[in-house]
């Protein structure tokens, strides 16, 4: 999986705004030095998530997180200028749109919009 500057920066913002991560084997993360890797063992999962480690949700992780909050049916549009437009619909009829440099960047932007609009209560923002 490819994570560039935009995806890592957006993932750091998601963490800063309260995205909870319970590391599990197979998750992608970036540490405080910028090293990106997979959680490879249960021991890794136990020690990660502290000291500035940041969860890098996969497309499936982000979709599951959004689906749990009523957002689904993503429409991805790749533009000629290299940007990626993402539109998601909510069960209640609302739509969210984001433009990023990649599909993941756009997905993280939508997650951030949802994260910031969700009242903080207990496990509301947990993955």
Question: Any overview of this molecule?
Answer:
- The structure is a single chain.
- The chain has four helices and six strands.
- It is α+β, with helices and mostly antiparallel strands.
- The protein has one domain (5-117).
- It has a three-stranded antiparallel beta sheet. It has a three-stranded antiparallel beta sheet with strand order 4-5-6.
- A hairpin with a 4-residue loop joins β5 and β6.
- The protein starts with a helix and ends in a 10-residue tail after the last helix.
Q: Could you give the topology of this structure?
A:
Layout: H1 5-16, E1 28-30, E2 36-38, H2 42-47, E3 54-56, H3 59-67, E4 71-78, E5 84-90, E6 95-100, H4 103-117
Antiparallel strand pairs: 1-2, 1-3, 4-5, 5-6
Write a short abstract of this structure:
With 127 residues, this protein is an alpha+beta fold. It has 4 helices and 6 strands, in the order H-E-E-H-E-H-E-E-E-H.
């Amino acid at each position: 999986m490819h994570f560039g500057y935009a995806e890592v920066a957006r993932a750091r913002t998601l963490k800063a705004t309260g995205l909870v991560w319970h590391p599990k084997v197979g998750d992608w993360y970036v540490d405080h030095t910028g090293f990106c890797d997979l959680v490879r063992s249960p021991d890794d999962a136990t020690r990660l998530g502290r000291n500035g480690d940041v969860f890098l949700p996969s497309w499936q992780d982000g979709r599951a997180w959004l689906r749990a909050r009523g957002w689904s049916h993503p429409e991805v549009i790749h533009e000629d200028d290299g940007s990626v437009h993402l539109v998601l619909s909510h069960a209640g009829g609302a739509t969210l749109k984001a433009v990023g440099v990649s599909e993941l960047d756009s997905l993280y932007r939508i997650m951030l919009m949802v994260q910031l609009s969700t009242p903080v209560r207990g496990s509301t923002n947990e993955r």
